[in-house]
Amino acid sequence: MQALLASLLVVAAGGGLLWQATDGGQALTAESARRLAVQRAPQPVSPFALETMSGASATIPDARGKVALVEFIYTTCPTLCQSAGADMFRLGNRVREAGLADRVTLMSVSFDPEFDTVERMKSYGERHDADGALWTIARPRPDVLPQILSDFGVIAIPDRMGGYTHNVAVHVVTADGRLAAIHDTGDFEGIIAAARQALR
Amino acid sequence: MMDNNSAQRLPGPQAGAVKFTMLLAGVVLLLMMVFGFVMRAAQGNLIDLDPAMFYQLLTAHGAGMVGTAGLTGAAILWYFMGRYVPLARGVFWAFLGLFLLGVVLILGAIFIGGYGGAWTFLFPLPANSGGVWGTDAAAAFLLGYVAIGVAFLLLYLEVGRKLIACYGGIGGALAWPLVMGKGTAEDAPPPAVVAAMATTIFNTIGTVVGAAVLASSLVNLYFPEFKVDALLAKNMIYFFGHVFINASIYMAVIAVYEIIPEYTGTPWKTSRVFAVAWSLVLLFVMAVYPHHLLQDTVMPAWSLAMGQIVSYLSGIPLLAVTAFSLIVYLRKANAMRWDLASALLVLGVAGWSVGSVPAIIDGMISVNKVMHNTQWVPGHFHIYLILGEVAMAFGFMMWLIGKPEHKAVGGFNWAAFSAYVLGGTGFTLMFLVSGALSVPRRWAVHAPEWVLQSQIATGFALLVIVGAAMFVLRYLLGLKHSAGR
Amino acid sequence: MKRRLRPGLAAIIMFACILGNRALEADPVLHVLVQLPMLGLCGALLAPRREWRWAQGGFAPLLAALFGIAFWMLPRSIDGAVSFPVMTLAKFLSVPLIGALLVIGWRQAHALLRGFLKAQAISMAGFMAFLFTHSPVRLCNNYLIDDQWRLGHGFLFLAIGLAMAWTIPLLTNARPRPSPRTRAKPITPVQSGVSA
Amino acid sequence: MAIQSNVLLISLVLMAVVAGFFISAVRASRKPDTSAPREVVRTRFIYALLTVGVIVTAVSLRPWPHAISAANGPSATVNVTGAMWYWEIDRETVPLGVPVIFNARTTDVTHGFGVMDSQDRLLFQTQAMPGYVNQVEHVFRQPGVYRVVCMEYCGVAHHAMTNEFTVAAAN
Predict the structure, then answer these.
(1) Model pLDDT, residue A65
(2) What is the pLDDT of residue B485?
(3) What is the CATH number of domain A42-199?
């Protein structure tokens, strides 16, 4: 009898633990948990300054009151960041088609600011037809980088071939500095919908 | 007559539970046969059936028949192993309870949830229904399989550990000393034990593999980011499915080894060739599954060649050992006593052997290219199910009810047996003919030129159902009379 | 092993796990298939040899251990142990407890329950192998896709190793002459009683 | 005669032979019979089965039934993609008399790519499976319209998943 009660208790507690640990059976990985957490409650990110590929300065959140669509890259990335770059270009077109070009800004932020100089950012931008207006490439100051990565939940680890492996996504940041949604770089519908939501 | 015959005719351990299980199985078999009849009638344009409903029936018929074949095989295994080793009674009830839980989940998934992903749950069909059924229905179906898998695992663990303990390990129970020429035939375990040990091993392995692919499919249902490799999943599913349905037949044949000697008067002994054959069966059953993947040209060529070769080799233990021995025993018999039980058991081995012919031929890659997934495939497996495994199960049921006067071949019983054999033969031959005419299997709607074949098959199906219903009725009446014993 | 040596050995293993934590966590194969089992072993070595009423049949402790294992098999938990100190601490506290619970439960478990758990363990190791070798996306933000693939193969070897470890002994105890006299008495229906 | 008819014929004959052994054993079972086969017959039977097996295996696997030979000489390639519930074929006509290689793909679940001739006789098939490209080669001997059907159960409109292509002499 005691054993039965104990077992039932264990099942209840264990089930509760797993339910908690997976956000109610919705997230088995840290990446899906990150996206789910943001979707449930937008999270504040510390404001930071950036230097763009044209040498100008910019900020996140956007000082002009635009919604920022932010991805993290490094310019010498041979794989993911290149396809992410192509996705950003297409996303830019979709933003224009949606008539949001003057209320949204696209930003590819380098997480390797010491290596990614203005010239390197510029060449990456040219390779992917970044216009510098709607979409630009930018880098933060190295000393604030850890804070930024931690705020956004981005983890970049050395890939043993001189580059990095990192989680790739488009982060939707509202004008008042809240991270409101995270989507795959190719999920244009989802990103546009999240941008509209953030503009409301 | 054998000296221990009088003891053998008494009910074995847990006869009550086994009799109840067989009654349940008989009723489910009838219901599933009706589903099959409805599908053939729909293909023959005799009735109007919505394709979604057709595929639900298809799913229920497949899962139900495989499950019931497994259930009858397990009951036979349990009953006869109870003669040799002390089995824990609770395990059989747990087995039956979990099995029924699985049945409820599967039926709910199909007829409430609308699941129609076929019994093979081929990845990623359960997760990708095109809007016909929901995730929860697919999950309930898969969980039903998990429950049934756990049921079988429990049963095999109990049988396996007792056989291992009593017969000196796996090797002892498989009569390996005899194989190596170290022991004598008198010291070897009885044929039923050898068969039970081999089945226990390969179906436990099959269940473990099945559990892994079921778990993967379940996770994929709810977390699509967890992709499953379609080819690997297919390999695991066919390994599991092939091993399971084969295990059903290999368990049912235990009834032949145990019951036929009562009729022939000659004990069925474990000979060296018998022991070798069963050790080979153990290997072959697991190595042969790639013959389901002969049209996956991305599979390594050696594995497909192995599928074809082992498919042929698998026929040898069946034909040269079980079938050959049975024929020898029948011929040697000093006036064999024929009744419904012995007739059905012999029919079971005959049907199984006959059905292996089209199976082996379909296992050739060049034939498979034009026969795979045509009605040739249901053709061959319906032979060794209707006229094989299920015939053995009905034979076991008839033997269970005891009194010879209930089983004498004549009148009602002769009519039932004739209807069943004639119906089964005609029904399965129509499948083979349709397969040769390139009629694909699992099509809800048939082209006009195939309709006549389906209509003829529908008639034969009706005959099978009539025969089977008469068996079940005979069993029920027999149970009533034998209840007092 | 002498019982009094166990706490010492457990302490040594625990120290090794703590001191080598950075190195072990850096590689998912070492993290999941070496460090976690070692931590579990610590607890197993320290498990008190007592039979509690609540643990009768082994069900409650084994269930608790299974839930614990399930938690630590979530990619998210493994990621968390690398990213967040709180989760690292939780790992060092909970995994030894899981090991202890496993031992406590195993001692009191029926042979059938043990067999079931063994089959389950092989199956789940195979399932994890399936998952890690075939997922097209990275499941842990802290590990490379190659590492994930290696971890999957580690699980595959684990499944094969467990299967062999548990079945080979069953093969080797085949006696040269299994005769009816050396095995248990066959149960005839008369002996076992009629149950109809 | 199509391969299917031969297969049916051979199967029926062998099945009848197997059934015949059982029927004669049943007939012999009622009276004492001394003609029961002995162990030596079983041994011979096993050797006979093995010998037949070796021959059939060697003959049926050489040349390899799934071989793609088209690298030398003229050939054509056709890409077919299965989706719930239609076939996409990247060309409408395929050449007569030369090896045609079909690359079978799918966008969703597993389908079975099967090709039937004008008499609805299945000529060949291969599986179309997520993440893989299955190749199958065939040389068409007759011009005309060929039907593509689905040979692997794929959901509620499985039977309706058909398409066509034309085989014509290449210019």
Answers:
(1) 87
(2) 44
(3) 3.40.30.10
| Percent of chain B whose pLDDT exceeds 70 | 95
CA angle at B467 for the pair B464 and B469, rounded to the nearest 5° = 105
Percent of chain A with pLDDT over 90: 27
The partner residue sitting opposite C116, judged by closest CB among B157, B232, B482, is B157
Spatial separation of the C-alpha atoms in residues A149 and C115, rounded to whole Å: 47
Kindly give, in sequence order, each residue whose CB lies less than 8 Å from that of residue B204, ignoring residues fewer than 6 positions away.
B153, B156, B157, B160, C119
Q: Is D54 on the interface with B (CB under 8 A)?
A: no
Chains A vs B: touching, with 3+ CB pairs under 8 Å? yes
Spans in chain C with pLDDT lower than 50 = 176-196
Show the domains of chain D with their CATH numbers. Answer: 3-61 (no CATH), 76-168 (2.60.40.420)
> Are A30 and C141 inside 8 Å of each other by CB?
yes
The answer to whether C144 contacts A159, with C-beta atoms less than 8 Å apart, is yes
What would the two tokens of residue A106 be?
A: 């696209």
Please give the pLDDT value at position D166: 95
Report the pLDDT value the prediction gives residue C185, as an integer from 0 to 100.
Answer: 43
Count the residues in chain C: 196
At B156, is the pLDDT very low, low, confident or very high (cuts 50, 70, 90)?
very high
**Cβ distance of B373 and D114 shorter than 8 Å:** yes
Q: Which range, of A42-56, B312-326, B438-452, B470-484, averages the lowest pLDDT?
A: B470-484
Is D134–B296 a contact, with Cβ atoms under 8 angstroms apart?
yes
Pick from B279, A124, B25, B361: nearest CA to D6: B361
Tell me the per-residue pLDDT of B84-115, one tens digit each, with 9 for 90 and over: 999 998 999 999 999 999 999 999 999 999 99
pLDDT of amino acid C102? 95
Contact C35, C10 (CB under 8 A): no
**Measured distance CA(C75)–CA(D14) in Å, rounded:** 56
Rounded CA-CA distance B248/B389 in Å is 7
The minimal CB distance from B125 to the residues D15, D85, D154 is found for: D154
Residues B348 and B339: their CA atoms lie apart, in Å, by 14
- Tokens, residue B354: 């006959």
The CATH number of domain B5-482, selected from 1.20.210.10, 1.25.40.10, 1.10.10.10, 2.40.50.140? 1.20.210.10
Element (H, E) at B157: helix B135-167
Contacts of B348 (CB under 8 A, 6+ apart): B252, B253, B256, B387, B388, B389, B390, B391, B392, B395
Quickly tell me which residue has 């504040």 as its tokens.
A44
Mutate to test the interface with A, among C59, C73, C76, C142 (most CBs of A within 10 A): C76
Q: Across chain C, which distance is largest between two alpha carbons, in Å?
A: 66
**Whether residue B297 has pLDDT greater than 70:** yes
* pLDDT tens per residue, range D51-60: 999 999 999 9
Domain edges within chain B = 5-482
Partners of B339 in the β-ladder: B408
Residue A79 has pLDDT above 50, yes or no: yes
Residue pLDDT, tens place only, A151-163: 888 888 887 777 8
Pairing between β-strand D163-168 and β-strand D122-128 as defined by DSSP bridges: unpaired
Residue contact A14–C64, C-beta within 8 A:
yes
Whether residues A21 and C60 touch (CB distance < 8 A) is answered with no
Q: Is residue D47 pLDDT above 80, yes or no?
A: yes
Cβ contacts (< 8 Å) between A28 and chain C: which residues? 74-76, 139
d(CA B32, CA B23): 14
- Range(s) within chain A of domains with CATH label 3.40.30.10: 42-199
> pLDDT, tens digit, for every residue of B132-148?
999 999 999 999 999 99
Q: Name the one residue in this structure whose structure tokens are 């643990």.
A: C55
Please answer yes or no on whether C123 and B150 come within 8 Å at the CB atom: no
C191 reaches B (C-beta below 8 A): no
